[in-house]
Amino acid sequence: MSRVLEVAFEGGVRHRFSAELLRVLSPSADNAASPRGGTPPHGAKVAAGRRFVGILGMQPVGHYAVRLHFDDLHESIYPFDYLADLGQRRLGWAKSYIRLLRQQGLSRDPKRTPARKI
Fold first, then answer.
1. Cβ 5 vs Cβ 68: under 8 Å
2. Where do the Gamma-butyrobetaine hydroxylase-like N-terminal domain residues begin and end (predicted)?
């Protein structure tokens, strides 16, 4: 399992992504924080509690994308053009994600369940 993905592009450009950022900015249609999704609809939920998510696997999708499999059982296809754009604007999107979490009273940390006595 990995918590970081590094992507090298032609021309020597490299971008490093945390698994958390890739997971919460997944380009899937059901993800409110996705840059591809535009402004999230009122009441849309972001993927909270993903601070420690990991990448379990990766598969090429033709010559244009990779499919990432996360340990929270989410998977999505990440086109290389999406990753290049995300790499250039990573800081801005990370700030937007944190802002959405705060607006919805959510956290990057996973929910903790109290220990039960047996």
1. yes
2. 2-83
